[in-house]
Protein 1
Amino acid sequence: MSLDKTVSAERVHIGFFGKRNAGKSSLVNAVTGQSLSVVSEVCGTTTDPVKKSMELLPLGPIVIIDTPGFDDEGELGMLRVQKTREILAQTDIAVLVTDSTVKTDEDEKIFIEIIKEKNLPCIIARNKADLLSEVPEASEGEIWVSAAGGINIDAFKEMLGGLTQPGKNERRLVGDLLNTGDVVVLVTPIDESAPKGRLILPQQQTIRDILDSGCTAVVCQAEQLESTLAVLSKPPKMVITDSQAFGKVSKLVPAEIPLTSFSILFARYKGDLPTQVQGAAMLSKLRDGDKILISEGCTHHRQCGDIGTVKLPAWIRSFSRGDISFDFTSGGEFPERLSDYKLVVHCGGCMLNEAEMKHRIASAKKSNVPIVNYGVAIAHVNGILRRSLELFPEVLNLL
């Protein structure tokens, strides 16, 4: 996959934060070399986060995010501030843009403390340096720049490029479980909820990782799985299925062939598989009146057989035999208050970056609410959770 085609969720997200009129948008435009954000002398010109995908070496493919001022006022201002907080949850590297002609104020100091608590890599960009009588030398994590005067823009970009995250690009979706020459069977149902003319992102990314590992991917639907296995000269290294077909597929795949799902692979890839395996236990403890949050990281047109809003609730109600109620969120929407829920059931998060997925898991932990992944939950209600985790012995002892 070429850098310019890297999906957003796999890019390093760099968020630009600061007070109104500190020059965030001007600095973003200077870094990208484009008029990405509207700039003016009027405070609060940026009303919604603006995103731009680009490349910045040595970080590679990135997403730059320009945010509204975190000191915005009024009812609408509070909504903008909330949106800025949501962006912070997606951020891999934070840039705090300040006005170098004035002292750091309390809002900016509080933001710096928040960044430290989150242990996020951060650069403080002291903007409007062209208005100073002398431009100070850059120090660790701090640089004086001028978006208007072009001062230290290249140095700032180099500083950003130096904030690499060890191990981030070494993670594998499935490749670390394979040896060159292995054959993997992928079960990809084509039903009313499947996108017309293409495969969904988790399937695409898994196929690519298999091919990058020097292995062979054999793709079929559940109805062709039995005949597909029969024509192979030897058993495949594993079978990976769409979670909604777990029940049917588990009956067709011999016990000696490892079986898991795309969703479980994504829980390990960008989330926290052990935590979500532990969360599955709550499915067996649900009682009448309990409430569950089902959250998806993407937004799409809901079909009559939608897995998140139709199939999962039906499976969970049938398994628990209780009168369970459900709330649903999608895309960037994820509630701060989770204490009303007995359980959070989350999708694989293929459209969310690792930072956002881990933020959601951390939010659930902070509220003492168990969280479970779609694939883990569906395997549990089908009675095959242990089998679906055989490829990951490090989490089997949690069952």
Protein 2
Amino acid sequence: MLTAECLDNVFARHNRHAEATRRAVRAWGLDVLCLDAREYSSSVTAVLMPQGHDADAFRKATLERYSLSLGNGIGKVQGKVLRIGHLGDFNDLMLAATLSGVEIGLRAAGVPLGGSGVAAGLAYLGGNG
């Protein structure tokens, strides 16, 4: 599969999905855990939940309600972050569905959002395909 897509295209796809995810997070008014853009990951985006919202409880509710599995925080960020994966055999439609599930879950959990992360992510993907 990697040979058919060409490794450079795989890396480019992962970078596109990562940037679309980060744009979604910023549109929601949330923060990416990584503060230095030079250190951003192309495989996973850690999202800092706002004060008063437990990331683990959010992940559990999102899994139960929407069958969306999100990664957890580890160590000192346990319960404070959720991780959105965008690696491997993953395409634009799968990312759109993931971002939609996160946004629906955030709204259901009462997390105050600044805007639509789905719209921001899709706008980026639409112009960078």
Protein 3
Amino acid sequence: MSLPTRREICPYDDLDGRVACEHYLGKSLHEAVALFREHPSYYEGDLLWMGPVAFRYYVRAAIQFIRGLDAGHLQGEFIPGFAGTLRLRLQQEAPEMAPVATELAGICGYIVEHWARFGVDPQYYGDVRARYAALQQAFLQLSAVRRV
């Protein structure tokens, strides 16, 4: 898969898309993982605003980042924010998420299974773990539909 173009990162030429473009244009997955390590919540927000082609590419960096987290490295907003991004993208553009639905179901399941390592405060964020469980099921259904 080639690096996403400016148009794929910012298809609507909106402010948030331009910021995502500034952060991600020309970045490999390895470089994008480094962005997440630098400031997880800041760069996670761009995943919501970039175009679907770019999202499908760069969400893999977020997945690598999550799977490689050291205990205590993650700032509390990343995991709840990522859940919100996945939920919104699934609601607004499910067909565009189908090509990565299996991977997204996998990372949602990973988060549920390893919940204790993420340190999300339920008093502040609510039941984020349940949101990931629901997202996992939705992405599994989406991947099953895609295979039919």
Protein 4
Amino acid sequence: MKLFVILSRVPYPLEKGDKLRAFNQIKELSKKNQIILLALNDSKLDPKALDELKKYCVAISVIPFSRLNAFTNLVRTFFSAKPFQVGYFYMSKAQRKVDELIKKHQPDHIYCQLIRTTEYVKKYSNIPKTLDYMDVFSKGMERRKKTDSFYMKPFLNMEHRRLLKYEHDIFSYFQNKTIISEQDRDLIPHPDKQQIVVIPNGVDTDYFKATPFDKEFELLFNGNMNYPPNVESVEYLVNKVMPLIWKKLPAARLLISGASPSKRVLALKSERVEVSGWVDDIRYNFAISKVLVAPMQISIGLQNKLLEAMAMQIPCVTSSLANNAVGAIHNQQIMVADTPEQYAAAILELLENEAKAKQIAYNGYLFVIKNFNWQSTTAQLEKLMKNTRV
């Protein structure tokens, strides 16, 4: 099968969830299919990106756009009915390239990741198409309305309304729709949302595996540290949870790890809180930490940080919202908490009871091995595509 994949970002390096998902799906799909990739790019291209992607793609097109392009896109979108999440990524030069590639390669199937890329292929009713909603942008925008500055409220209200309409309307343009979790599927504003197929992420368990290192930190928070849900969660951890931990364990240290830490994240640094920024091999930060804490305050998406830590046999503490997407059993495979006091109690139990920590870690590892691997999740996606007709 010739598969035309359209992404809003170049899927390398793997510092963001959409890149991780796209890269591993492409890697698995390439074993039996020809991948033609088109990726938009609004940042500096990693020098290793094309070499990595050439291992799995027969053709690669990267469409760069500058800050001027982005500004023009946003201004144009303001006067349309489309969400900024969609308009920001739409360019006529990219449309011409999409049309050229489709004419040249005659793909058997088109795969769009996120609603950001869907405008490019709406007109191709003669080719089977799959949309990976992945996350529910409208719900994320709704939650941002509650936390962002008052002067952002009019813009956020506008974007929320547009996203609701677009997520509904785009549904009918694609034969297949996928998403990352059941709870995300239930948030899609469409009466037939049960038709959306849940395709969870996986973990490369050959890469993420238990590694013996001396533990330098009691706690770890990991993720893209410029992403608002991660920023809000780590602020909650430092300001609400850690004071309760420090009452019992004054020397406990927290490592905040991940790309592009914002000013708000950098402001959390102290003698007991370290902010590492981007690291070439995230496994090292996992390995030198005793417990991963992910006190996520919103329920969108699947937290890869949890799956990766569990694969490395690091015990995890997270919110019930985040665990709803994972589906691990509280107090057996993971620890679940929703208040500062509950987080502190769960963390202290794992830090002070080594046997309990090891049991949670091992059970979590077995759970991930069984339920989250890229081979099986992508095989489900591939079967869906191959059985699609227009």
